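Model: Ready when you are.
Researcher: Fold this.
Model:
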Amino acid sequence: MELPLYKVHIDDFDFTTGVDAVAIVDHPAIERSFMAYSKHYEFAFSENGDRRIVTGALMVADMPIYRNIGGREFYVQFDAQTIEAIAQRYFEMGYQSKVNLQHNGELIDGVVMYESMIIDKTRGIQFQDLPEGSWVGSFKVNNDMVWEKIKSGEMKGFSVEGIFNHVKVEDVPQEELAEIHDALADLEYLMAHI
């Protein structure tokens, strides 16, 4: 079975398109978990004084992301140029504090993005195994309930929300995308256990 692949973009003149919130979720569609830093910058939690910072991928450039909306299955993909435009618009619109849990639509207080970068090796910006053009962010989490969900491992990563335009690229064999999905999962596992 082949599923359609859509390239996602935003409209330069329609400011309703783009990312308008970030959800903290238990299963990120981009299959990347965030890292939580202790006061010593370790990838673990400190028992006496968490810094309450989580850093991770928000969008992965050129990664096919499986979607199933009302039984309609397809993949979407964001290229590096689109991701950079989305990140810039996100900040222009002042959405750094628009955060929810599990895409429930209810904004939570005490969580704000304070760092953001686009992976760009020409500028020396790299992060784990992310490809060029991916978007990474750091959030300060002063909300006790959210921080406990992160510390417990219940919440594992970020997922963006927004309105996007889609252009069909081609039908992609499901087996090929399943292989890509499995390879990315293996790589994430290895990176988490180094």
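Researcher: Now this one.
Model:
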Amino acid sequence: MNRFIVMMVSFLIGCSAFAVDNKAANKGKPNLILEVKSGKSVMKISANGGRIISFTYDQKEILTQSSEHENFGSTLWTAPQSNWGWPPFDVLDNQKYKVVKVGNILKMTSDPDSKSGFQLEKTWQAVENNSIRIEYLIKNISGKAKSVGPWEVTRVPCGGLVFFPDGGKGKVPDSNLKPDLQKDGIKWVSINKNPIPNHQKLFSTGGEGWMAYAFDGCLFIKQFPDIQPENYSPQQGEVEIYINKEKSYTELENQGAYRLIQPGESIEYIVNWYLAPIPETVKIEVGSQELASFARKQMIQIKNK
């Protein structure tokens, strides 16, 4: 039996730590894992792809794991998908990132990817209120101007309730996944665990710059810059939800502004993650005003940090 060789190097970012696991799940590559804590919320990030592989509150997991599906955890893609099809660029999505500590901020940087013409940089910082700030940079390392948008793709288990503010009218692709309800400016999508004949995808405008997922008694919120439909990447939406037909995972996707960047320039995209329990007095159901109000209250606290 192969042994795990684990090195723990502690440093101060809300009791964070590095770990080196020589039996990595990602194609057998040595895997550096970063842990960031904020209150009772703990995030773990793999240097293989700079992928967030775990986000828990009091040991309750909100992300799918590598043992469940090959598409797991959370990552950043370049938009639109029409520029690369499938699979994502390997250097940016799977290969090992360089990891450094700059003050109280942890940074992971991909190698320059000649195929896409981009290099990704990701930083994480614990803040108060069980939230973690993530800053993404997409750098143009090619010799010509390129248009691109940031696209955060987060895989969660099915069996929860997604809701987010609608952004009104805007040109987005047709969707074969429809909201269960749109009420008081919020779209609600209930996701059960029953397999379906085909994959489903919802493309939508967004408003207020957040989306939430209620699952297993906890509320997961992603807060991001709100953008207008004229700034969407081609054939994409500001908010997208994908469900695979086996119901082994759901993707909560948010996108930033699509723009032209010159050689050497970068796009910045900042997202705040929040995870905490939902009070027992709050109804967890489609159209729940209490749940929407609770999410907005947490949003105010996140923005004030």
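Researcher: Key takeaway?
Model: The radius of gyration is 19 Å.
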